[in-house]
Amino acid sequence: xxxxxxxxxxxxxxxxxxxxxxxxxxxxxxxxxxxxxxxxxxxxxxxxxxxxxxxxxxxxxxxxxxxxxxxxxxxxxxxxxxxxxxxxxxxxxxxxxxxxxxxxxxxxxxxxxxxxxxxxxxxxxxxxxxxxxxxxxxxxxxxxxxxxxxxxxxxxxxxxxxxxxxxxxxxxxxxxxxxxxxxxxxxxxxxxxxxxxxxxxxxxxxxxxxxxxxxxxxxxxxxxxxxxxxxxxxxxxxxxxxxxxxxxxxxxxxxxxxxxxxxxxxxxxxxxxxxxxxxxxxxxxxxxxxxxxxxxxxxxxxxxxxxxxxxxxxxxxxxxx
Length: 321
Description:
Elements: H1 4-16, H2 22-34, H3 42-45, H4 64-69, H5 73-79, H6 96-100, E1 125-129, E2 132-138, E3 149-157, H7 160-166, E4 179-182, H8 203-206, E5 214-217, E6 229-234, E7 251-255, E8 260-263, H9 267-276, H10 287-295
Parallel strand pairs: 3-4, 4-5, 5-6
Antiparallel strand pairs: 1-2, 2-6, 3-7, 7-8
Helix pairs in contact: 1-2
């Protein structure tokens, strides 16, 4: 069941429903354990041109229960049949195309047809650049179109506690053109890669009516959240990634159409910063947390334990006598 074709179907269907960026982490971890090759870039090449068929928050206005009442995922699968591997076998032993060929839509305000989608292209975009050599992701359908190409000054928070303590300071030098950078939210750094990437905007900007800003982190974001938020920056700040070298006042270029995330700092300066960079103290020297931080993979690989990759079907043989 867990074939390459099934994973490709999943990527395309996640795009069609406007699904979460968390999906990327989960699917890569599953693929890694079962031994199916799946590269981060394929979430873009396979999914970014897929039309959005579901009018569901945060990409739309309806709730999950409305999606269910309109016919749910079977309707989307049926509408997407020309994009899918319809012969991929499912858990009931039948192909996915056969399972859903009679699905009926009961509300076209919630589920669109493939010929008249809500958005022509809505999947995940995967970014690369000196700030994310192994990749970072953004969900365009939940972002502000005007911010998809942006250059702004970085306002850096070393961790989520630093952010909570200082984001609402009246004297914080920040405006709507700034780029909020959150470090220490990756698999190793937090530890555990929490859903803190959609950092709250400063109170003084909210009072001005600002509803979105570019935000960048090595953490994750809830699937119900919205905004122009770059996530899963890899390698993460806490293991020496360039994200960990960013300083307030640096300028960052976000160019989603060209899949670029770039820190405007000379390579020679980055080398100086790296030479004086001190890794954060390990969160624990024993127990589960120690095991986790020593063996967890980076976000672009699925943030799973490295010793479980390709091993989930291993058989342990033992003589019963």
